[in-house]
Amino acid sequence: MGGTEISDWEVYRLRSLKGGLGYTEEKLKTIFRDLREIEIRKMKVVEQPKEFFGVPGFLTALFQKR
Fold first, then answer.
1. How far is residue 29's CA from residue 36's CA, in Å, rounded to a whole number?
2. What are the pLDDT digits (tens) for 18-42?
3. What is residue 43's DSSP assignment?
4. Which of 10, 14, 23, 36 is the right S-S partner for 27, CB 3.0 to 4.6 Å?
């Protein structure tokens, strides 16, 4: 698992992961196994500059505390 040294806020502020993280759907489910999965899907692509961040090939996930 790779990573970046910047905070989540910086990712959204800069609109870049600066090398970022990459997780498969299975890895996300493992990491958040104690939470209830709401949704895992491919991120919607958002052309920049915009208020929102979205790039091809990334997953986005929503989990909820049980």
1. 9
2. 766 678 899 899 999 999 999 999 9
3. P
4. 23
CA distance 63 to 54: 19
Which residues make Cβ contacts (< 8 Å) with residue 51, sequence separation at least 6? Answer: none
pTM, rounded to two decimals: 0.62
Distance separating alpha carbons of residues 14 and 30, to the nearest angstrom: 28
Q: Which residues of 10-39 are buried (b: 16+ CB within 10 A; e: fewer)?
A: ebeeebebeeeeebeeeebeeeeeeeeeee
Alpha carbons 32 and 29: distance in angstroms, whole number: 5
Spatial separation of the C-alpha atoms in residues 55 and 58, rounded to whole Å: 6
DSSP structural state of residue 5: S
